[in-house]
Inverse folding.
């Protein structure tokens, strides 16, 4: 199973590396992330020899979008998750470890952010800074780190009273050492699980923001943006509800495999890291 | 809570007065009146002054007027919140129960087909954007089968609920209908929540399931579990009494976060199913820079959050006696 | 034994009866909610106050609940029929004075408001005065202020009210016996047509009873530019129209209208009308399909999805009164802190502030756009190329006016001439903007970009979506080098297009900093001219100037389509009616099985 996960992610990674080769950007294009359009007519076109994966509305080529979208997916997911994890672990760890007023202050701050309904905060940030993928990343990071912080704090609170920690403390380690060497590695599992699911989730959140008109610009190679383009075509025509199946299925299946891959990978990593599971 | 609103206010001040005036100017024909609109709504005053004005009004009990909802903010909250609360209750309980149950099962039967199946199903829910799932469900159950329509209630219940004698006791329409002696109407309201509820359940199940599973796995691998088993205690007893309790810590954290999230409203589901909840109002307000609306809905969310925090802190203590409160 | 024989016969009769009932019920049961009409729309209404609202969603309800002095005959945008008025004034019937400045309008007798009180000419006078003197910022009051008082606002730029406004207004609008007499400072051709869409009749008594202005000079300043929600007119109505507003449920975004059984004409056939706002197209489509909605808003890009639904009919090729999209050039761009102009100089990396004031640059763009391609691809071939600022459905439109066509050779020529050849040598770079979410406009920008860039590798254009708030910001500061917008008619008269698009004080030229004195002169003459054929001549000459100057590029004379259930009868098209063709005047509409094709026409089986 974990092999499958690893395989999937490597596949996507390879695709994203090979993007300029397997889906070359058209000449004249200043930004390879902008999907080429074949004409402008509004109805999506089914997969065929001209467009291997078909097109979306406004004739954006899905094959190109999927390939370069892999790059975007990695870029966005990795940056958001890594940064939020870092902030979350730092703040949550310190809060949980020191307790007292440090905990109070940090947690109040975390609470303030957490109290915002996710999307409202994201929407506000994007409204203020303007649409575009960078601001989307900023917004999603801003709403993600508090969950990690809280989770870690909860774990730390519990772990720090455990025997092995008390023992280490008795042996006279410095606070920092204690925190980073003993407590955090043992508190980190739930975060890894959440993080691994998040990798795929980021793409979904981007799709949600695109649905609201705040994500990457239309025509940018982003899976979330592409699947949100399917919204008017999901129902198909009345005789044939699957008339435009490819607009949903292709980005949908890709996202699904991406999420699945990270899940399995996350599980595998956890299995490896957990000494007690051997 | 001040923090929340202050932060939000500050963020919004990054927008120029012209941008904030766009809330009131929707059409190019009205552009000539821009300056006057800015004057009228005091959009040029310095930030602390505007915040002070708003705060003063709030303390007087006046939350202001939400342009996007076309009603005073407090009325908007009273209009939208009960609907969201009802939907959250309908969706949350199954998520919690199913999530914990299936997660535990998954952990106990790790790597067997049950484990794989539940994880697979959960992941499909998780990797689908909610509007895709929502529209597909709507297409099948409403389009093809004509069973479950969108909206909050159907036409006759609409007329009933707004008629003279109807008493709105709780704001939760299912309850209210029952209290007014109209079980058919209650069923109608409930019917309208099935699809959005199902969408929410399917999408959020994965997270809870995974957390429970991994937490349980951790616990089950621990020494005291092995000891208990060795002592001959039946498996299910071990699981229920000991492992589950310990495994629940992260579950509690996450489910309280989830509950808050749901209470904050789920704008996309609400949009697709035409469900009049807080989510749609909050996000549309944010998009259109309806500042009183955004502040109002955020204030509500902040309050709920504080309440839920208290609740989950209590639950922490219940679940893990080793955590000292204070 | 008698029983044995009569029972079967009675049974047969009973069965026959049942069967008939079933079939009949089936035919009836096909039509959901036969006396209730449901319309699903996109936009949110602003207010029910006729003196406040300037948006189509509010107006769609207002014009079904309130009634103006006149209305349009059927589908015409030119022929008026009397509504609250008894007769339409004209030169022939003597109700318009020879100098064109005085209009005498007899008021219909026997009309009652929804609360039962009778309509008097005093009410009509009050309605017009209130419409003008209310004058909220960014509201519609200028539409009557300009013709009746000669100036567009009751306040100056600083916001101070003009104390003489009331006197000017009450002098202009008087009651003489049963007539309303309007005295204009100068002839104004479209005055009657404005009164067919705006300032419907409201009850002064009701207004006073509910805390609004009493119509006197003493109080008018208090009610000048008030807060929207402070007025009783905001969410409650008391009109004379065929429907009453039972409820505006803002929580679920719906209007519930009920029939006015004391209407002065035959009451409407529909008992109830529900107008609901649902943002998601998929949901609207499903409701139309299920028969829970009778008509929905759907734009051309999703036509293929509504076309073949059983039970739904599509009525296409309906004329419109709009100019959309239009590509505007800013003659003097504000290059301070402007992210759209690159370096701000003609050095190949930007554009100078007067880039578009060179007519050759504008013509270069004009010949580089693929008008037919746009119509074919974006509009699925529907609609025709616009010939000038006046749309096809209005008098003054000149179908023979020369237009620009895609001609890359000519485009190249003009670019080579531009700025003495410098443009061609050094090239340029700037950002082309459109308001985000608007796909046709985005496509237009893409087409323009592609074609222009293909002429010369040194020509570089970036296309960017801009959020509405940011757009307003930049627009107001004249920072957008080119912007794409649309214009929807306030009333169906060529002046309503000519002024905002071509007059130096009009909305767009003022921001573009475009001024052509000849154009101004023509527009001002045309508004005073009441002879239609003379007006047409003036507008024809105006549109020639428009073509020569090319301050903007008009693209499309659009046609719209309507998607409705086939049991909807009685609908007729009038492009000026707010939110048409999806929204409509509900008075003549009723629901009945589609006539003809009755023989097994349902094909859906028994209900």
């Amino acid at each position: 199973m974990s092999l499958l996960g690893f395989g999937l992610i490597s596949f996507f990674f390879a695709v994203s590396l090979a993007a300029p080769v397997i889906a070359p950007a058209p000449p004249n294009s200043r930004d390879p992330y902008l999907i080429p359009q074949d004409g402008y007519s509004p109805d999506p076109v089914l997969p065929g020899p001209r467009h291997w994966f078909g097109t979306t509305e406004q004739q954006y080529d899905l094959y190109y979008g999927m390939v370069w979208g892999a790059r975007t997916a990695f870029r966005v997911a990795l940056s958001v998750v890594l940064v939020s994890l870092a902030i979350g672990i730092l703040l949550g760890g310190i809060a949980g470890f020191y307790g007292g007023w440090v905990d109070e202050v940090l947690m109040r701050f975390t609470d303030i952010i957490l109290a915002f309904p996710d999307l409202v905060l994201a929407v506000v940030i994007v409204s203020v800074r303007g649409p575009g993928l960078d601001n989307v990343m900023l917004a999603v990071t801003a709403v993600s780190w508090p969950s990690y912080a809280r989770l870690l704090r909860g774990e730390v609170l519990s772990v720090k009273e455990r025997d092995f920690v008390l023992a280490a403390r008795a042996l006279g380690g410095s606070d920092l050492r204690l925190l980073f060497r003993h407590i955090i590695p043992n508190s980190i599992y739930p975060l890894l699980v959440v993080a691994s699911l998040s990798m795929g989730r980021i793409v979904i959140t981007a799709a949600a923001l695109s649905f609201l008109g705040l994500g990457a610009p239309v025509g940018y190679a982003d899976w979330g943006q592409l699947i949100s383009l399917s919204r008017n075509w999901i129902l198909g025509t009345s005789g044939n509800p699957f008339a435009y199946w490819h607009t949903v299925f292709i980005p949908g299946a890709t996202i699904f495999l991406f999420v699945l891959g990270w899940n399995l990978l996350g599980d595998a990593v956890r299995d490896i890291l957990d000494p007690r599971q051997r | 809570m001040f923090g929340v609103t202050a932060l939000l206010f500050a963020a919004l001040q990054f927008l120029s007065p012209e941008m904030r005036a766009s809330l009131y100017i929707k059409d190019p024909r009205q552009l000539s009146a821009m300056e006057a609109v800015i004057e009228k709504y005091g959009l040029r005053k310095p930030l602390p002054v505007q915040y002070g004005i708003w705060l003063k009004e709030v303390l007087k009990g006046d939350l202001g007027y939400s342009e996007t909802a076309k009603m005073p903010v407090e009325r908007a909250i009273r209009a939208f919140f009960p609907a969201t609360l009802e939907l959250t209750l309908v969706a949350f309980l199954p998520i919690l129960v199913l999530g914990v149950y299936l997660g535990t099962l998954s952990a106990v039967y790790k790597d067997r087909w049950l484990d794989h199946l539940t994880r697979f199903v959960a992941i499909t829910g998780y990797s689908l954007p909610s509007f895709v799932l929502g529209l597909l469900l709507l297409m099948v159950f409403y389009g093809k089968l004509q069973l479950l329509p969108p909206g909050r209630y159907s036409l006759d219940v609409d007329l009933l609920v707004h008629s003279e004698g109807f008493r709105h006791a709780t704001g939760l329409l299912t309850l209210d209908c029952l209290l007014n002696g109209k079980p058919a109407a209650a069923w109608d309201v409930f019917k309208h929540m099935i699809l959005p509820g199902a969408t929410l359940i399917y999408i959020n199940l994965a997270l809870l399931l995974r957390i429970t599973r991994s937490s349980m796995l951790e616990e089950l691998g621990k020494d005291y579990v092995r000891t208990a088993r060795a002592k001959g205690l039946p498996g299910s007893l071990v699981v229920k009494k000991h492992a589950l309790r310990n495994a629940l810590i992260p579950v509690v954290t996450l489910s309280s976060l989830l509950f808050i999230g749901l209470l904050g409203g789920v704008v996309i589901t609400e949009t697709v199913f035409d469900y009049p909840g807080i989510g749609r109002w909050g996000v549309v307000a944010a998009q259109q820079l309806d500042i009183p609306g955004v502040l109002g809905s955020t204030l509500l969310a902040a309050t709920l959050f504080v309440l839920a925090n208290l609740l989950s802190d209590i639950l922490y203590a219940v679940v893990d006696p080793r955590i000292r409160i204070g | 034994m008698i029983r044995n024989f009569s029972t079967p016969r009675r049974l047969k009769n009973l069965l026959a009866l049942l069967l008939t009932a079933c079939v009949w019920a089936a035919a009836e049961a096909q039509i959901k909610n036969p006396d209730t009409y449901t319309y699903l729309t996109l936009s949110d209404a602003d207010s029910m106050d006729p003196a406040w609202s300037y948006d189509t969603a509010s107006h769609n309800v207002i014009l079904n609940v309130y009634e103006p002095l006149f209305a349009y005959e059927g589908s015409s945008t030119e022929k008026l029929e009397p509504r609250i008025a008894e007769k339409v004034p004209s030169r022939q019937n003597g109700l318009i004075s020879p100098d064109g400045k005085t209009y005498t309008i007899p008021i219909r007798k026997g009309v009652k408001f929804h609360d039962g009180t009778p309509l008097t000419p005093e009410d009509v006078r009050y309605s017009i005065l209130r419409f003008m003197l209310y004058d909220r910022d960014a509201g519609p009051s200028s539409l009557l202020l300009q013709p009746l008082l000669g100036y567009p606002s009751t306040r100056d730029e600083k916001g101070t009210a003009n104390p003489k406004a009331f006197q000017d207004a009450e002098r202009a609008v008087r009651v003489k016996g049963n007539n309303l007499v309007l005295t204009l400072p100068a002839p104004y051709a479209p005055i009657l047509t404005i009164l067919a869409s705006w300032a419907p009749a409201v009850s002064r008594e009701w207004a006073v009873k509910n805390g609004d202005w009493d119509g006197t000079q003493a109080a008018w300043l208090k009610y000048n530019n008030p807060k929207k929600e402070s007025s009783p007119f905001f969410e409650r109505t008391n009109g004379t129209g065929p429907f009453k507003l039972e409820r505006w449920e803002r929580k679920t975004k719906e209007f519930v209208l009920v029939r006015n059984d004391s209407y002065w004409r035959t009451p409407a056939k529909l008992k109830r009308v529900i107008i609901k706002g649902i943002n998601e197209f998929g949901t609207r489509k499903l409701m139309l399909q299920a028969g829970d909605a009778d008509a929905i808003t759907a734009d051309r890009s999703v036509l293929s999805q509504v076309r073949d639904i059983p039970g739904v009919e599509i009525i296409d090729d309906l004329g419109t009164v709009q100019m959309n999209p239009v590509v505007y050039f800013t003659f003097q761009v504000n290059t301070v802190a402007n992210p759209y102009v690159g370096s701000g100089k003609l050095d190949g990396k930007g554009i100078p502030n007067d880039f578009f004031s060179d007519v050759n640059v504008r013509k270069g763009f004009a010949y580089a756009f693929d008008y037919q391609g746009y119509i074919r691809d974006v509009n699925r071939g529907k609609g025709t190329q616009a010939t000038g600022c006046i749309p096809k459905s209005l008098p003054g439109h000149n179908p023979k006016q020369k237009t620009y066509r895609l001609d890359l050779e000519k485009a190249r020529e003009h670019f080579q001439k531009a700025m003495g050849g410098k443009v061609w040598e050094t090239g340029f770079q700037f950002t082309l903007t459109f308001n985000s979410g608007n796909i046709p406009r985005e496509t237009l920008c893409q087409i323009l970009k592609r074609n222009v860039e293909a002429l010369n590798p040194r020509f570089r254009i970036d296309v960017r979506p801009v959020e509405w708030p940011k757009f307003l910001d930049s627009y107001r500061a004249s920072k957008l080098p080119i912007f794409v917008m649309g214009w929807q008619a306030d009333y169906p008269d060529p002046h309503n297009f000519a002024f905002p698009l071509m007059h130096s004080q009009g909305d767009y030229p003022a921001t573009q900093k475009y001024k052509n004195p000849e154009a101004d002169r023509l527009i001002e003459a045309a508004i005073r001219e009441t002879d239609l054929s003379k007006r047409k001549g003036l507008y024809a000459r105006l549109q020639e100037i428009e073509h020569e100057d090319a301050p903007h590029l008009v693209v499309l004379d659009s046609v719209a389509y309507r998607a409705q259930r086939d049991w909807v009868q009685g609908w007729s098209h009038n492009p000026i009616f707010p939110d048409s063709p999806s929204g409509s005047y509900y008075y003549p509409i009723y629901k009945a099985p589609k006539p003809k094709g009755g023989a097994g026409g349902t094909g859906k089986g028994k209900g």
